[in-house]
Amino acid sequence: MSGPLLKVENLTKHYSLGTGFLKKTVPVIRAVEDVSFSVEAGETLCIVGESGCGKSTVARLLMRLVEPTGGRVLIDGTDIAGLKKDALHAWRRRMQMVFQDPYSSLNPRLTVEQIITEPVENFERLSRKQRQALAADLLQNVGMWPEMMHRLPSELSGGQRQRLGIARALSLNPSLIIADEAVSALDVSVQAQILNLLLDLQQQMGIAFVFISHDLGVVEHIAHRVAVMYLGRIVELAPCEALFAKPVHPYTEALIAAAPVPDPTHLRLKATVEGEMPSPINPPTGCAFHPRCPLAVERCRTEVPPLVSIADGRLAACHVRAPATDIPVHLEHSLAGVSDDTELWTPTQIAGLFATKYGEKAG
Ligand code: ADP
Fold first, then answer.
1. Mind listing the domains of the chain with CATH numbers?
2. Given phi > 0 = left and psi -120 to 50 = alpha, else beta, which region is 2?
């Protein structure tokens, strides 16, 4: 099969806050706005951003747990919105979800064996022997002892419960797992074990992951590519190493600068971002990040920047760093009176980026 495993096109989700006769005045939460990306087989795409930026809503839209206001989700080229009952059932085998909270996402009254074999039994009837063999196999895959199959979730540690959640997701041999803050509730050492388990499983089984996290340390460890979301939109999408080495969007830069660094000798960029994320009910005009952005120029206040391709598979939505028009951005920048004496990128770097995009000589 050619083409990406998962393709998301212009996905949008608005939540209406109430109904009534005066429908025009009903406020709307713009949770996800015009989000597009793709995921190849065996790839890990991480979606990162502050709380409330729309990450979990994207996960729920991918799993068809909520209906989109607009846009499409395609698996192997098939739009999941058009699937009828049987096809939808078959599609559900291919995409599974691992949730943040292993305490509340497992039925406390079922044994480990029942929990991990339940998804398969929704599709086919298993004999007792088959069920036990499947449970033992799945437990071994996630580094647990087969003897644990008779326990209840309350008899397991947090890490073991998350392994159980992963075993359950694996039971249907999916092509894609959506993991929503799957390690956020765990201690740091257990987090590392679970992340390494996911990496091992990916290598062995070729599973693709959409991994949602607010934790850049986790993202840097496991992502092939990273999508950065701000107020419902993707503002930057890039291969992981390139994104951390040289973020393009000022928001990405600030996020990386704000993340804790385990090694105190490691140099981080000095960019910081002031203030809180605005409300998705009444987002700022133009680029939603402009009220917090040290590089904002007039265009940022009026025009939503498109997500444009820069180079080497990188995309960014920023009038200053990734201009979509032919106006030389460093010129507009100085005309707008924005000091280039910033600890963000130098004008030469910006010009270099501009040159990469337009094939001009950097200067
Ligand atoms: P994140 O996962 O990045 O923290 P969410 O996707 O949970 O963000 O939420 C994005 C925005 O959508 C938030 O402002 C949140 O309050 C709003 N939201 C999420 N789910 C609903 C819902 N069911 N009804 C109304 N608003 C919602």
1. 6-228 (3.40.50.300)
2. beta
